[in-house]
Amino acid sequence: MARNIAVGLGLMEFPFDGTQGFWRWVDLCEAGGADSLWQTDRIVSREPILEAMSMMAALAGRTRRLKFGVNVLSLAFRDPVLVAKQCATIDVLSEGRLLPAFGIGSPLGPEWQTLHVDTKTRGRKTDEALEIIRRLWAEESVDFEGVHWHLSGASISPKPVQPDLPMWIGGSSPAAIRRTARFGTGWQAGGEAPTEIGPVVAQIRAAAIAAGRPIDEDHYGCGIAFRFGRPDDPGLLRLMEAYHRRTGRDPQRHFAVGEAAQIVERIAAFVEAGISKFILRPAARGDEEMLAQTRRLIEEVLPIVAARWPKAKKRPAA
How far apart are the two ends of the chain, measured CA to CA in Å? Predict the structure, then answer.
């Protein structure tokens, strides 16, 4: 069965000169045919990074077509009832365009030490939170007795507009694979290379089938930093160094650099590994550079992607 390949754009830091540049970028993505917009989650930082849920709410009011999500929201730092309410509210206000994605949080994030949260609790807290959120979206009254959360007759209203609000899960550990099979409607990769992603996708497929809730073939995604230009561009080298300090990963394996053909081939390697949904982050700084990189992606890459992987036609209703 043909998969529908879709390309959205994402942000980590706030790379703009000011708010107006950010909204110009959002408007460009909306008008240019990008599939979605994504904000990386980070609560504690010295660099300017937008709070993810607030950004989603703002996008709900600014846009009319774009979908949007968080890549990925760290549930170990948040109250699940509040998250469920926030997601439902944003989905209602956007008329069903929210794409929630959840994870346990990077162990390299500064939040653990700053907020004095034990990293050993993050998996169990996340699993409990996912169950609470899923039930609050669907049930009128939720009782829950866990290790970290206790609820009696909890309810939220209004419910999400989407009757089966997506729940994308991040992470590639055995626990994350089990978590995706149990709760997820999709999976979001981290910094894995295509050769690393293929086995994870296969394991998730098998685990989801075993759990009796197979995941749509289209619902596997990943994020890639991209830049039109040369690998030795001084501005790019600075961004790569910052990425390595923040993540500990080799940016040469994560960044797609070159012309449209090179960026598309990087996408193709992930498509071959089983990925269908992409978050491309401009490796740029400042309003004009962000807009120029994004405009080239829209004008040069999106048409090639659409032609190379044409979307499957929906079957007419019986």
Answer: 19
Locus of tokens 């069903």: 96
Summarised one tens digit per residue, pLDDT across range 175-233 is 999 999 999 999 999 888 999 999 999 999 999 999 999 999 999 999 999 999 998 88
pTM across the whole model: 0.93
Any residues with CB less than 8 A from the CB of 195 and at least 6 apart, and which?
A: 273
The residues facing 99 across adjacent strands are 69
